[in-house]
Design brief:
CATH class of the largest domain: Mainly Alpha
Structural class: mainly alpha
CATH architecture of the largest domain: Orthogonal Bundle
Radius of gyration: 24 Å
CATH topology of the largest domain: Penicillin binding protein transpeptidase fold
Strand order of the largest sheet: 1-2
Helix content: 40-55%
Shape: elongated
Strand content: 5-15%
Number of helices: 8
Number of domains: 2
Length: about 220
């Protein structure tokens, strides 16, 4: 009768372990296959994407006053430490409330995006963190597909590993598009309110934070 005990032991203990190992192997193989699928659109060195921001040509008069700026993109770069904390909070509330908690992507946001995909059959930007938006702005095309979404996840993890949250937000705030050929929050404050960011009211900060979601206004 001892073989009956052996058979029961295999059924109760060994079989689940074998199933778990098989599942782990299949999952690992699937992740590796997805990575190979995404590799063609990943940059070899993410650091090479940190190119100087395109800035317009500024024209000044003899007294040193700015007369005008010419160029396809209007930018006024600003450092993170010079950005009003309330303005940072406004953008986090509008774009990525868990920015300082996640490591490049937010499982809650991705879950909502997955539900939206099942409901509508289309990919939305709802699950994108600020880091993912920055990656898309730096190196990826605007085409919406699963391959690009996976590349966003991989590159976001890379970016979070080499830059601090403050550095990531500084890059983001100087590259985000506000419509009217305006890029960056400092340029947006000037374009929409003719103010410096430190002089914006709370209502104006909230309005600017909402513009990137519909930058054509």
């Amino acid at each position: 009768m001892w073989w009956l005990w052996v058979r029961q032991a295999i059924r109760l203990f060994i079989a689940p372990i074998i199933l778990f190992l098989n599942g782990l192997f299949i999952t690992t193989l699937g992740i590796f296959a997805l990575y190979l699928w995404v590799i063609p659109i990943l940059p070899e060195n993410l650091a090479t994407t940190y190119l100087p921001l395109q800035r317009p040509i500024s024209i000044y008069n003899a007294e040193g006053l700015l007369m005008g700026q010419f160029g396809s993109q209007y930018r006024t770069p600003i450092r993170y430490i010079d950005t009003p904390p309330l303005l940072i909070k406004a953008f986090l509330a509008a774009e990525d409330t868990r920015f300082f908690e996640h490591h490049g992507f937010d499982m809650r946001g991705l879950g909502r995006a997955a539900v939206n995909l099942l409901d509508t059959g289309g990919l939305s930007q709802g699950g994108s963190t600020i880091t993912m938006q920055l990656v898309r702005n730096l190196v990826l095309s605007p085409v919406k597909n699963i391959q690009r979404k996976l590349s966003e996840l991989i590159l976001s993890l890379r970016l979070e590993a080499i830059l601090s949250k403050q550095q990531i937000f500084e890059l983001y705030q100087n590259r985000i598009f506000f419509g009217h050929n305006t890029y960056g929050i400092a340029a947006a404050a000037s374009t929409y309110y003719n103010k410096k960011v430190k002089d914006l009211s709370l209502a104006q900060m909230a309005t600017l934070a909402g513009i990137p979601q519909a930058p054509s206004i």
